[in-house]
Amino acid sequence: MTLHTAGIHHITAFARDPQANVDFYAGVLGLRLVKKTINFDATEVYHLYFGNEAGSPGTIITFFPWPESRRGRVGGGQVGVTSYVIPPGTMDFWEQRLHKFGISMMKGSRFSESYLQFTDNEGLKLELVEREAGVNSKWSFGGIPTDKAIKGFGGAVLYSVNPGQTIIALEQVLGLEKVAEDVGYVRYRGTGDIGNIIDVPRASMDWGSGGAGTVHHIAWRATDYTQHEQWRDVVEQHGYQVTPVIDRQYFNAIYFREGGGILFEIATDPPGFSKDESADALGEQLMLPAWFEPHRAEIEANLLPITLRELEGEQS
Q1: Pick from 286, 314, 259, 281: which is nearest to 18 by CA?
Q2: What structural domains does the chain harbor?
Q3: pLDDT tens track, the chain, 316 positions
Q4: Which of 59, 63, 133, 304 could form a disulfide with 152 if both were Cys (CB 3.0 to 4.6 A apart)?
Q5: What is the reported pTM?
């Protein structure tokens, strides 16, 4: 059976300060806080989701912000860099905006594309790249007009302790297509028009360590529940230890660790974030699954308050 993922569904990372997390991803980058919930395995920790106006697959970055989290180290076995795509002709706007907020930047290039590279407030590596593909976001916040807003993911750079094994997983399991080679990198593409470009450095990386400022896992798209079950069979047939299907409220998930040390998830596009909130009210309330509702008061009391707010600048 040959399946081909469209690309990234979401990326999940660790952070420390929940308010600073909201300020950076909503206040600085202008993403929509589409869901405010909790880590189902640690109810004293938020699970915050940021994306486009609907939290569409390919736009969603999620965080577990916990003040007691240790500081992580970016390295092998992780997503090393998360790439965001912006409309063509908007790089100067974003360079000026990041400068306004006191964020240090550098410029880089891969595969004849220019990147604006920086880190978030926790040290997570990010970059912006201009591309035509992908629809513009309809979400405007903090003075960012929709024609300049981040569309979603451009893709990711995978830091592997064994690049050959990671490449096998990308090609033979996920069905990504090798499209180019550059100095030090191999590039793969999914079938979608956003979150679909994956770069793998040829050199193996020393192991990173998990914690604030690092990515926990990268999730790939499955179109529906039937295909999701097929994906599980494919992963298992390739010899990986894969979890049962897990209901994550807004998507179903399976997990496995590929041979280069990176934790992969495959997640369903449905049901999405309007499952328990209307589209115009996403992210406004703390949403809990039914089994936690009897404990809402206790859960809320253990969470630090957070506020979605527009920023004036110098927030780094």
Answers
A1: 286
A2: 8-301 (3.10.180.10)
A3: 689 999 999 999 999 999 999 999 999 999 999 999 999 999 999 999 999 999 999 999 999 999 999 999 999 999 999 999 999 999 999 999 999 999 999 999 999 999 999 999 999 999 999 999 999 999 999 999 999 999 999 999 999 999 999 999 999 999 999 999 999 999 999 999 999 999 999 999 999 999 999 999 999 999 999 999 999 999 999 999 999 999 999 999 999 999 999 999 999 999 999 999 999 999 999 999 999 999 999 999 999 999 999 998 765 4
A4: 59
A5: 0.97
